[in-house]
Amino acid sequence: MRLKNIIINILKNEVVPAMGCTEPVAVAFACAKSKQVLEDESIRKIQVLVSPNIYKNGLGVGIPNTEEVGLSISAALGISIGNSNKGLELLEDVDENIVLKAHKILKEIPFKLDIKDTDKKIYIEVNIEGKNNNVHLIIENRHNNIVYIEKNNNVIVSKESNDENKDNTEISFLINKKIQDIVKTIEEIDKEDLLFLLDGMNMNKKMAQKGLEKKVGIGVGYRTKKLIDKNVLSNDLLNNSMMITAAGADARMSGVNLPVMSSNGSGNNGLTAILPIVAFNQKYPQTNDKLVKALAISHVINCYIKSYIGRLSALCGCAVAAGTGASAAITWLMGGSHKQIDGAIKNMIANISGMICDGAKPSCALKVSTSASVAVQSALLAINENITFDRNGIIEDSAEKTIKNLGILSNEGMYNMDQSILGIMGNMN
User: Fold this and answer.
1) Which family does it belong to (predicted)?
2) 0.85 exceeded by the pTM?
């Protein structure tokens, strides 16, 4: 019973809508909340400090309802909106007047965006100096998790990461269970408790449709569809999974004005965890009961893996976490045994465990395209008993041990990777 309740809690907390790329949105959210606390007085100075991972993921991605990219404009948009009540969907309110106001803020008010020296993957600090009041706000560990607010040296919020501790307790309980026990428990959950996951599926399908209708970004999904229509590529499950998932990322990374359902703090993880299952359902229609449980398996395994590699990491979470969740779910939909589900996970990690994350940007569509196609391939291989041998590279005799090894690779083996990536990006003209 406890595992069932924890799985449902994790799904409700981690599978949430987001408008735009999660890192710029989180900065906009933090700044909007800061302005809300400051109230309607004039601003004299703004400082925004972010973790290296937030900085890396916010530099090159399109902002919804604008033709802008980056964290500075996101911060200014948040202050212009001045209301955080819509959470990570606040950018749906952006219009031409708000954009003009944001540019005026960046032009007329001293503004500084910098990298915080912190080991935390998710960290956003906002300091606003007004005419009569000052506000200091911190987000940590989750993109919408405000842990501290101070106004004029008076502490308004000081959660001291209590929510994080609760989350960590639930995640610790989850990852101490075997994946087969997690899947068995999801199989026993009432469909009604998981129906909300269909909202996320429909939301992400709409985003993917935008990427199929016309070329946005670099047009990975759009061009794949054209090649399928011309019979250059076959109209099969693998190519459709690749096409629809890439189209979702094409549209989202270009700033299309639609929300997506995120997974474990990432919109692209949400696309990758959900859309290969959509492709499978389009080819082989499933009941809602099967669909919601497959979506639950995908999201929970994504969360399970990211608890080892980090919400933001040097590894591409879409590939090694969300893609692996989708592969396990597709294997389950095909009637795979628990051994075969484990095999799909091991096949995924044996294949694309080295894919790096060099920030959120339009070319993420290529990475999620690869992730989606490998998810299908790994499932098809596993269901036919073609599974990576044990003790091959980082692959162990169980999915759980293999995922632990992936965590070591991410956190120890690639410790300096983000700094190297930021150095390369900073040296580009």
Assistant:
1) Belongs to the UPF0597 family.
2) yes
